[in-house]
Amino acid sequence: MKTEDSKTEALRALRTLARYETHGGYTWAAVMSDGGLLCVPCVRANYRQIFRATSDPRDHSGWRVEGMIHSGDSEQSETCADCGRVIWE
Ligand SMILES: [Zn+2]
């Protein structure tokens, strides 16, 4: 079950993410509820939809963001679940 705190956390991550594609020397991406990653341009392009989905714990549109991850946290190359571009390698 999702707590209010983790939702607030996810929304904060989403806002931060929409502002910075790279930050602190890392490339950032959104972690979706299904475990896929979304690149920042796709986050920006679908921001309203993502924000709405993330705000609603019962949303199953597939646009719900769980948090964010950066290239320093990942050992493997990642591609965007939406546009398919390589986010980092
Ligand atoms: Zn993308």
Structure, briefly:
The chain is α+β, with helices and mostly antiparallel strands and 89 residues long. The protein contains 3 helices and 6 strands; from the N terminus they run H-E-E-E-H-H-E-E-E. Helix 1 (4-19) packs antiparallel against helix 3 (47-55).
The sequence of SSEs as H and E is: HEEEHHEEE
The total count of strands amounts to 6
Mean of residue pLDDT values: 91
Roughly how much helix do the residues carry, as a percent range? 25-40%
Our count of helices gives 3
Question: What characteristic shape results from the CA principal axes?
Answer: globular
Q: Round the Cα radius of gyration to an integer and report it.
A: 12 Å
Largest sheet: 4 strands, antiparallel
Q: Whole-Å distance between the termini?
A: 33 Å
**Total of domains:** 1
User: Which cofactors or ions or other ligands sit in this model?
Assistant: zinc ion
Into which percentage range does the β-strand content fall? Answer: 25-35%
The secondary-structure class comes to alpha+beta
Low-confidence stretches at least 5 residues in length (pLDDT < 50)? none
